[in-house]
Specification:
This protein is an alpha+beta fold. The protein contains 10 helices and 10 strands. Helices cover 31% and strands 11% of the residues. Strand 9 and strand 10 form a beta hairpin.
Length: 333
C-alpha cells in the first residue's frame, strides 16, 4: 500500500508538471536569458508572488524585465510595500496617497503612496534636505538598509551615523543577503536583478525584534526549549519568523527529484497544511523527510506524529506556477 501511494503521488506530480508546461512560457519574461544565473531564483519567485513587475503595455520594453538596468528609489519603495504588506495587486495603496514629508514627493505621482507608506513605517529615509530623490537610482547599500529595517533592524540610530554603509554590509554578509553580490558593487547604482536578489534573500532571513535593553533578539515562531519536553522532542531547532512567512505564509521549499518524464526536479514553495500544529511538530516547517530513510526527499509528505507513519498523497492546492527550469510549483502538500 505504501509503495502504491508513493507511485500515485509521483504520477500526480508528473501530471501537474505536464499541465504547467503549457503555460510556463506565457508567464516568463521575454528576456529571461539575460538574467544572471545566481539571481534567477530571486527574480522568478518575486515575480510569481506579484512583488516585482516587468514592463507593461505602455512601454516599448513590454514583456521584458531588463535585469541589467538600474532601478529607482521609487520603484524599490513599491517593491518594499508589496513585500511588507502582501498587497501585490496594490488594492489598498490609494490609502497612503496625500501629504508627504518629502518635498520632492508630491500629489498625483504614481510613487507617492508607496513612499509615504514606507516612510510612515520607518522603512525608508530621504537623502537629506527634505528630499527622497524618487527618480534617483538606488544603490546596493540603500537597498540593504531598506530590507533590513523591514525584517526588524530598526534601532533608530542603527543606520544614522557616518558608518551606516559598513553596518549594512556587515548585516548583509552575516545574514547571507549579499552572498551572490560581487564584492565592491554595493556602492554603485543597483540593477533590477541585484535588488531582486537582496530583497529575496532578505525575506528569507530570520526576523528580529528590537529593544533598547536587549537590542536585537530573534523573532521566534517556535522556541524549541519551550515546546520540547523530557520525553518528546518535537522540534530539533528553533523556528525563526521570516518576512516570507509573515507576509505570504510560505514556510520554505523542497525539491522532488525526477518529477516528470524528462527527469527534471520539481521545486515546491510550500505553506502549512491545515492540520499542521506546533504540538505535532508540523507547523512553520517543510515536512519532507522520511524518518526511515534520512536525507531523502519523498514525493509524499510524511508526518509520523499525526499518522503513525502514513504518507499523504493529496495535493491541497497549487497557487503559483513558477517559470524557470527546473519546473517549479508553489503550494502545500
Amino acid at each position: 500500500m505504501r509503495n502504491l501511494k508513493k507511485f500515485l503521488a509521483l504520477v500526480l506530480a508528473m501530471m501537474m508538471t505536464l499541465s504547467l508546461m503549457v503555460t510556463v512560457n506565457a508567464s516568463s519574461f521575454d528576456d529571461d536569458e539575460d538574467i544572471t544565473k545566481v539571481y534567477a531564483e530571486a527574480v522568478d519567485v518575486l515575480t510569481e508572488l506579484g512583488v516585482i513587475k516587468g514592463y507593461g503595455g505602455d512601454d516599448p520594453n513590454e514583456g521584458k524585465f531588463l535585469p541589467k538596468n538600474n532601478i529607482t528609489r521609487a520603484e524599490v519603495a513599491a517593491i518594499l510595500y508589496r513585500l511588507y504588506t502582501g498587497d501585490v495587486n496594490d488594492d489598498n495603496i490609494h490609502l497612503y496617497d496625500g501629504f508627504s514629508e518629502f518635498t520632492d514627493v508630491g500629489p498625483s505621482q504614481w510613487f507617492t503612496p508607496y513612499v509615504n507608506f514606507c516612510a510612515n513605517n520607518g522603512l525608508i529615509q530621504g537623502r537629506g534636505n527634505g528630499k527622497f530623490d524618487p527618480k534617483g537610482n538606488i544603490t546596493g547599500y540603500e537597498t540593504l538598509v531598506m530590507i533590513l529595517r523591514a525584517i526588524g533592524y530598526n534601532d533608530p540610530k542603527e543606520f544614522s551615523s557616518s558608518d551606516w554603509r559598513f553596518k549594512a554590509s556587515g548585516y548583509g554578509n552575516r545574514l547571507g543577503l549579499t552572498s551572490n553580490i560581487p564584492a565592491g558593487s554595493l556602492g554603485a547604482s543597483a540593477t533590477r536583478e541585484m535588488v531582486s536578489e537582496i530583497m529575496f534573500k532578505g525575506i528569507l532571513a530570520p526576523m528580529v525584534k528590537y529593544s533598547p535593553l536587549t537590542m536585537y533578539t530573534t523573532d521566534l515562531l517556535v522556541d524549541a526549549s519551550k515546546v520540547n519536553t523530557a520525553t518528546a522532542k518535537i522540534y530539533s531547532n528553533d523556528v525563526p519568523n521570516t518576512l516570507m512567512y509573515q507576509t505570504f505564509g510560505i514556510v520554505g521549499k523542497r525539491t522532488v527529484l525526477d518529477a516528470d518524464p524528462f527527469g527534471r526536479p520539481l521545486v515546491q514553495w510550500m505553506t502549512d497544511r491545515s492540520d499542521d500544529t506546533v504540538q505535532n511538530g508540523g507547523k512553520y516547517i517543510v515536512n519532507v523527510e522520511d524518518p526511515a530513510n534520512p536525507g531523502t526527499a519523498d514525493p509524499d509528505r510524511f508526518d509520523a506524529s499525526l499518522t503513525g507513519g502514513t504518507y499523504y498523497d493529496k495535493v491541497d492546492k497549487v497557487e503559483l506556477e513558477l517559470t524557470m527550469t527546473p519546473v517549479k510549483v508553489y503550494g502545500p502538500l
